[in-house]
Amino acid sequence: MKLLLVDDHPLFCVGFAHALAHVLPDALLLTAPTLNAGLQAAAGEQDLDLVLLDQRLGADTGIQGLRLFAEQYPLVARVVISGDEDPALATAARAAGASGFLGKSRSVPALATALQCIAQGGVVFDGLSAVHASATQEASPCPPTARQREVLTLLALGHPNKRIAQELRIAERTVKLHVTALLVNLQARNRTHLVMVARQQGLLPQ
């Protein structure tokens, strides 16, 4: 798992990197001190799995960062990490397309577990009840991107991930990320259910 932490507090960045290395020794954590530096760093990391944005970034905020990263790197999961664990911030992060809102009061093992869940397509929001988070998700689902629609079309034809990757000339790992995102956004249990839900929502022909 490759992560990018955008935080303007050097001590937190260094401490978090060392602590995470003990819990997730196979994870690679990159850091950036500003939002612009984070966007530039992500440009050189094609296999980035997840970006963590501190809510307070000088003149910028993590919520602003969510929108900028969504525009430029829509396949990278986006998470706000904050010392202010106000439920209103968690709600705003969810509305801005975040996959998670994590409080800095969490233990490192708990943070690591949450990050693994998010990297695999899950959602984790501190400060929101499961019911509230689910209701927010249903109120503002993420529409499939153009590439996700292409993956969905080939998936409906019964193609495995390897064949889809060959057809679209992308990495098989990227196909898995698209399928995971589709499963989460359409709240489907598996690939077969995903195709059924997509047809019901008019994303595929009947």
Layout of helices and strands, plus pairs?
Blueprint: E1 2-6, H1 10-23, E2 28-32, H2 35-43, E3 50-54, E4 56-57, E5 60-61, H3 62-72, E6 77-82, H4 87-95, E7 100-103, H5 108-119, E8 124-125, H6 130-139, H7 146-156, H8 161-168, H9 172-185, H10 191-200
Parallel strand pairs: 1-2, 1-3, 3-6, 6-7, 7-8
Antiparallel strand pairs: 4-5
Describe this entry's structure for a reader.
The chain contains ten helices and eight strands. With 206 residues, it is an alpha/beta fold. It has two domains: 2-139, Rossmann fold (3-Layer(aba) Sandwich); 146-200, Winged helix-like DNA-binding domain superfamily/Winged helix DNA-binding domain (Arc Repressor Mutant, subunit A). The protein has a six-stranded parallel β-sheet, with helices on both faces. A two-stranded antiparallel sheet has the order 4-5. Helix 7 (146-156) packs across helix 9 (172-185). The model is unreliable at 129-141 (pLDDT under 50).
CATH architecture of the largest domain: 3-Layer(aba) Sandwich
Give the SSE order as H and E letters.
EHEHEEEHEHEHEHHHHH
Strand content: 15-25%
How are the strands ordered across the major sheet?
Answer: 2-1-3-6-7-8
Helix content: 40-55%
The CATH homologous superfamily of the largest domain is termed Response regulator
| End-to-end distance | 38 Å
CATH fold label of the largest domain? Rossmann fold
**Main β-sheet: number of strands, strand sense, barrel status?**
6 strands, parallel
* General shape: globular
- State the CATH class of the largest domain: Alpha Beta
